[in-house]
Design a protein that fits this description.
Number of helices: 8
Shape: globular
Number of strands: 4
Strand content: 5-15%
Oligomer: single chain
């Protein structure tokens, strides 16, 4: 028996024994979500979601809303890219073992497109009198399906900055402007 079948059988036996009350999954696509729901309802999904990575919007977010599945988005600042602190030079100077050096979001031509979007977002953040990281997080948290967003930090002051995003409301006019930028 393959390891994944053993893990699945163990999980199912725990559920039948009443040891699993709530189930959360990570990186599930629509097919996987629909397949697991009859076995045990999923209460939480953890997908990647950011201004630069929006593929969950079309099917997964509406499905989660309809099925009351909470979402805990990870990488809402796209591995630091949406902090506004990256440039081509900074990416080139990342250590050789930094996984971002080979990530499509951090390599040409996508890097240049992402940096262009970030430059367009700066005036929006300035107009709202917030930082780019706060804008990136507030934009993710604006969705009613979102339970939380996982924002990494290297220093305590970064948490003090980004935690404020939970209170920020982006008005419809600015959401439309941001959507046009992201869709271009």
């Amino acid at each position: 028996m393959r390891k994944s079948k053993k893990v699945g059988a163990r999980w199912l036996s725990w559920w039948r024994a009443g040891k699993i009350r709530y189930a959360g999954v990570s990186n599930f696509n629509m097919e996987q979500l629909k397949r697991i729901q009859p076995i045990h309802p999923v209460t939480s999904l953890q997908p990647p979601y950011s201004m630069l990575r929006r593929e969950v919007e079309e099917e997964i977010l509406p499905y989660c809303r309809e099925n009351q599945i909470g979402i805990v988005a990870y990488s809402p600042m796209q591995a630091g890219l949406l902090t506004g602190r990256f440039s081509k030079e900074r990416v080139q100077n990342l250590p050789a073992n930094d996984w971002r050096k080979a990530n499509p979001f951090f390599t040409s031509p996508q890097l240049e497109a992402n940096l262009s979007i970030i430059e367009q977002l700066r005036p929006v953040a300035a107009q709202m009198e917030i930082t780019l990281p706060q804008l990136a997080l507030a934009w993710v948290l604006r969705r009613s399906e979102m339970t939380a967003a996982i924002a990494g930090a290297r220093r305590p002051e970064q948490i003090l900055e980004t935690v404020k995003a939970g209170e920020i409301v982006i008005h419809d006019e600015l959401l439309l402007k941001i959507d046009r930028m992201l869709s271009a």
